[in-house]
Amino acid sequence: MFEGKTGVRVSEMLSCQQVRDEFTDYFDELIGPEERAYITNHLSQCAECAAEYGAFARTLEVIRAVPAEEPALDLWPEFARQMDEITSQERASVLLRVRRRWDEALARVSEGAILYTAGLADRTAQRLAKYLIHDPFRAKE
Ligand SMILES: [Zn+2]
Questions:
Q1: Fewest CB within 10 angstroms: 18, 25, 46, 51, which?
Q2: CB 25 within 8 A of CB 31
Q3: What are the tens digits of pLDDT across the range 92-139?
């Protein structure tokens, strides 16, 4: 007799779904020998569940092979130091780039200011010239 997670007592054959529901515990060997034997037996006879379990086990192995924690302590300080360096370099280069853009922008603004002033001066001169033509104090020819 076997009592699965669902509490359903299964005497002989487990359904595919029941087997698949036990995959995690089966993989982690958290089930009793009797239940384990049932599942092993099912997997040896059911190609679909065997394939499903194969994929399941490979996926779990890959997931568990990936370190979930920080790198080993003896590697971490070195890594952190390098990260700090890279980060500060990046920050400096960003500052430099911003600075260069700012200089360019300033240059363009002053260029524009000069042109504007020149234009203004020119117009002012023209306007003044109009008055100057009728300048009553201007000596007549
Ligand atoms: Zn099956």
A1: 51
A2: yes
A3: 777 777 777 777 777 777 777 777 777 777 777 777 666 666 656 665
Do residues 34 and 42 make contact, with C-beta atoms less than 8 angstroms apart? Answer: no
- Which residues have CB atoms below 5 A from the ion given as ligand 1? 16, 46, 49
Helix (H) or strand (E) holding 50: helix 47-65
Ligand 1: distance of its center to the CA of 36 in Å?
A: 14
CA–centroid distance, 35 to ligand 1, in Å, is: 15
Q: Give how far Cα 33 sits from Cα of 28, 40, 54, 119, 132, Å.
A: 13, 10, 20, 96, 114
* 54 CA → ligand 1 middle, Å: 12
Digit-coded pLDDT (tens) for 12-47: 567 999 999 999 999 989 999 999 999 999 999 999
pTM over 0.90: no
Ligand 1 centroid – CA 20 distance (Å)? 8
